Amino acid sequence: MAATETLSRPAGRIDFDRFPRVALCHQPTPIEAMPRLSAHLGGPDLFIKRDDCTGLATGGNKTRKLEFLVGEAIAAKADMLVTQGAVQSNHVRQTAAAAAKVGMKCHVLLERRVPDRAEAYEATGNVLLDDIFGATREFRPAGLDMNAEAEAVTEKLCSEGHRPYFIPGGGSNPTGALGYANCAQEIMDQSAASGQKFDWLVMGTGSTGTQAGLVAGFHAIGHDLPVMGVSVRQPRERQMNAVHGLTNRTLEKLGAGELPLSKILVDDGYVGEGYGMPADSTLEAIHLTAQQEGVLLDPVYSAKGMAGMIGMIRQGFFKPTDKVLFLHTGGATALFAYQDQILNSRS
Q: Could you give the CA distance from residue 256 to residue 319 in angstroms, rounded to a whole number?
């Protein structure tokens, strides 16, 4: 079937009870207005979906994915979770906490992906929390296929008598993406209950599972809310293709039809020098959102997503009458690993 061909899709609700799942997440997370930031920017009405409030390990978007991933691990009778991420990975922190919560061990591989960081970068922020949750870890140099590295370690642990369950970076596979297909349904329920219709959803996009899950979920329930992903790492075309592939694999898991590449929206103008390296626009977004709304963003994902939304407002991308929802994916614990850069950027 051609990638651009769209099949008929079911409208209504998705039955998530058919998938293994464990309760880890505070949900529904609130949707709050951001009136001061809206007024400051002179833009459309802004709202924020507080997925930094999911509860597990200070919250974050990976908890929704882990409900389904850990549910699958329990069904497979695993005794250990194995995953990978960058040194200050929010995903690794939440995976370590999820393992502790269900009584499993957790082993992680951390990629030294971000160059030129002080020694404390590998001991503070999310890494400190990984330790507190009892995870064991190994480091890897930048540039390796980290999922392949982690899968090899998973096989080694299996040969040693463990029953490990491998979770890819970011929890980004069709099972993990179910968490954000479910979030899409949650957003529509909240919209119906409040009478508040949104015209856009904006978010930072990295390992693709959050954006793919949202797009798949909205498509499966028959709601055409555009999801703009602000890339935190990859060029636009590469990120679009990655999100598109996972979206259609998630739709297949849901029993829904494919959607075309044209439905995947990505802006790569706010990556800066690379993953985990805050641009000036990233640092501005951290200070502005904190000082206008009392909300903390992280320097790797959510602040780059917010920087993208701010930039789009300044460029006139949105209509003045639009209602724009920003998805806060959490991660403020990583702020401590970037303390000097953030403090030096204050105006």
A: 32
In DSSP terms, 48 is beta-bridged to: 32, 326
Taking domain 16-60+173-344, whether its CATH number is 3.40.50.1100 is answered by yes
- For residues 305 and 22, give the distance between their C-alpha atoms in angstroms, rounded to a whole number: 29
DSSP string covering 199-237, please? Answer: SEEEEEESSSHHHHHHHHHHHHTT----EEEEESSS-HH
**Residue labelled with tokens 């299996």:** 158
107-124 residue pLDDT tens: 999 999 999 999 999 999
Long-range interactions of 185-191: CB distance < 8 A, separation 24+? 185/13, 185/14, 185/217, 185/221, 186/27, 186/28, 186/29, 187/31, 187/49, 187/225, 187/325, 188/218, 188/221, 188/223, 189/28, 190/28, 190/31
Q: Annotated catalytic sites, by residue?
A: 89
Parts of the chain belonging to CATH 3.40.50.1100: 16-60+173-344, 64-171
- Are 260 and 3 in contact by the 8 Å Cβ rule? The answer is yes
Domain 64-171, classified CATH 3.40.50.1100, yes or no? yes
Beta carbons within 8 Å of 155's beta carbon, 6+ residues apart:
none
SS3 content of the chain, % helix, strand, coil (to 5): 50, 15, 35
Please count the CA atoms within 13 angstroms of the CA of 50 that sit on its side-chain side. 17
* Under-50 pLDDT residues of the chain: 1-10
Asked whether the whole model's pTM tops 0.85, one would answer: yes
